[in-house]
UniProtKB/TrEMBL annotation:
Residues 146-215 form the FERM domain. GO terms for cellular component: cytoskeleton. Residues 144-215 form the Ras-associating domain. GO terms for biological process: signal transduction. It comes from Mohoua ochrocephala. Gene3D superfamilies: MyTH4 domain, Phosphatidylinositol 3-kinase Catalytic Subunit, Chain A, domain 1. InterPro entries: Actin_motor_Myosin, FERM_domain, MyTH4_dom, MyTH4_dom_sf, RA_dom. This is PKHH3 protein. Residues 1-141 form the MyTH4 domain. SMART domains: MyTH4 (SM00139). PANTHER family: AGAP003327-PA, PLECKSTRIN HOMOLOGY DOMAIN-CONTAINING FAMILY H MEMBER 3. It comes from the Eukaryota.
Length: 215
């Protein structure tokens, strides 16, 4: 199941817990659940978003081993953060400076590739209802897109590549074009179906949030 509501203590205590999680992330063999836990805490406690951004910038500045596994884990979490939350304007300016500096110092490196991906994501992120699913975190770590399967009445299932920013309306439009229905007077929408109910997906809804709810 997707992460649900948790019980929290004070912001100060939670900030300390997140800092400890970041320290653990450096040597974690499977960092995905830990990353999702950090993201969930930030979603539940928005005042900590800026704190985590600042901590990740600090951890990826002058790392002991630039481009090493621990360093890349921090960049991967920073990538997931950039597709989920926007920092405050001052922290955003600080972050953009850090991305520019990294690309200038380590051109063509993995860190520079993450920095470029993060910059593009920040221009599209508007906030999420859910944290990224485990699958989404895995593909973000590789700077790739997810493959979403949509079942169409009277037609074979269609596979659509989506990013963290793809809306239901964008996918519906692509499917209408693929199926040759562009001239149809009918309206088309996506539906999410579970064992208990079937309901339309709002046109502005992010497909990544829908997939997290199904995880």
């Amino acid at each position: 199941t997707a992460p649900g509501p948790r019980s929290y203590t004070t912001l100060r205590d939670e900030a300390v817990k997140l800092f400890n999680s970041l320290q653990q992330l450096e040597s974690e063999r499977d960092p995905v659940p830990l990353m999702q836990g950090v993201l969930q805490t930030c979603l539940d406690l928005p005042p900590l978003v800026d704190e985590i951004y600042c901590q990740l910038v600090k951890q990826t500045t002058e790392p002991p081993v630039p481009g090493g596994q621990g360093d890349l884990h921090y960049w991967q979490l920073l990538t997931c953060m950039s597709c989920t939350f926007l920092p405050s304007p001052p922290v955003l300016r600080f972050l953009r400076f850090h991305l520019d500096r990294t690309e200038n110092r380590f051109p063509a490196s993995e860190m520079a590739k993450y920095a470029c991906f993060i910059r593009e994501a920040l221009g599209k992120t508007k906030g999420r209802e859910c944290v990224p699913s485990l699958e989404e975190i895995l593909v973000l770590m590789q700077r790739q897109e997810m493959i979403c399967t949509v079942h169409c009445p009277g037609a074979p299932a269609c596979s659509v590549a989506i990013s963290s920013h793809t809306t239901a309306e964008e996918v519906a439009q692509e499917l209408v074009s693929r199926l040759g229905l562009s001239q149809s007077p009918n309206l088309f929408a996506l539906y999410e179906q579970s064992r208990r109910r079937e309901q339309p997906v709002g046109s502005a809804t992010l497909l990544a949030d829908v997939l997290t709810r199904f995880e």
